[in-house]
Amino acid sequence: MQQIRYYVTFRLTNVITLHMQSLSIPEDAMSDICLEFKNLTLGYQGRAAVHHLSGTAERGVLTAIVGANGSGKSTLMKGIAGILMPISGTCEQHFGRLAYLPQQSELDRTFPARVVDLVSLGFWQDRGLLGRITRRDRAKLAACLDAVGLTGFEKRPLDSLSGGQMQRALFARTMLQNADLILLDEPFNAVDERTVGDLLCLIKEWAAEGRTVLCVLHDHALVREHFRQTLLIARKLVAWGSTSEVLTSENLRRARNFHEAWDETAGWCEDERSNSSSVARQDDEPKQRVAAHV
Ligand SMILES: Nc1ncnc2c1ncn2[C@@H]1O[C@H](COP(=O)(O)OP(=O)(O)OP(=O)(O)O)[C@@H](O)[C@H]1O
Known about the structure:
One of its GO terms (molecular function) is ATP hydrolysis activity. Residues 273-294 are annotated as: Disordered. The chain is of the alpha/beta class and 294 residues long. 36% of the residues lie in helices and 21% in strands. The strands form two sheets. The protein has a seven-stranded mixed β-sheet, sandwiched between helices. It has a three-stranded antiparallel β-sheet with strand order 2-1-4, covered by helices on one side. The termini are far apart. Bound molecules: adenosine-5'-triphosphate (ATP).
């Protein structure tokens, strides 16, 4: 009975999360813009964590999101996924489906679920909560497990997996979701070099298939080598564009200065300046303080 209750909770929690990620996405076949921010401010309990972000991400582009700890990267991912509602401004997705892989630290692995249960949640958008998985689905699932090197792990309980194996299982679920926009929050944390290489290959294949991938990363060398575009954030946009133009020592210095100067207790910012779109160098130091506002 306990097992059943856990299992139902596991499915419901995951399905609700996946459902929130799949809401309301208008098709826009005329444009190559997949994602558009307009003066987006996100935060918690009335305090902004990401300020006045504007810009666009094109379809099929691999973008790294970089910034110091606490700079707002995960907050931005949650805003795009629809888990966090904007304090002001908008975030619009212009193509189909979205898949979101949160940081591993946010996942509860104590549910008595197996690898196959986790991965098959990727079918939810097609099959619904109680929908039956067909023979064809099972073949797809097997192919995805094979692609991430987890053939034979189907019945393994989640709490018996290593960090890297868990990440591979989550990538398999993401593959089954067949999403147009894929959000990955620090997907290479605590995984070995070989797993990083394997998962990077998958990510590049997704982009080659026309999927847009946004990936939070801390390893600048890896970003320089594998990601065409980078968005550098320090609670507000510092720069967004080609990786070589964004990851300059000057931009990194500005990001550091801005982040260090930020007032953690400030309320949400009423400054309605929009920061310019796409490839953008934003204002220099944070001269403008946040207005305390409740
Ligand atoms: N649930 C929450 N409630 C209140 N404040 C939060 C919450 N989550 C994050 N914050 C705050 O928002 C700010 C941005 O946090 P966020 O997690 O987005 O940073 P990050 O860039 O992803 O950091 P890291 O690299 O450490 O993962 C931080 O000051 C953080 O303390």
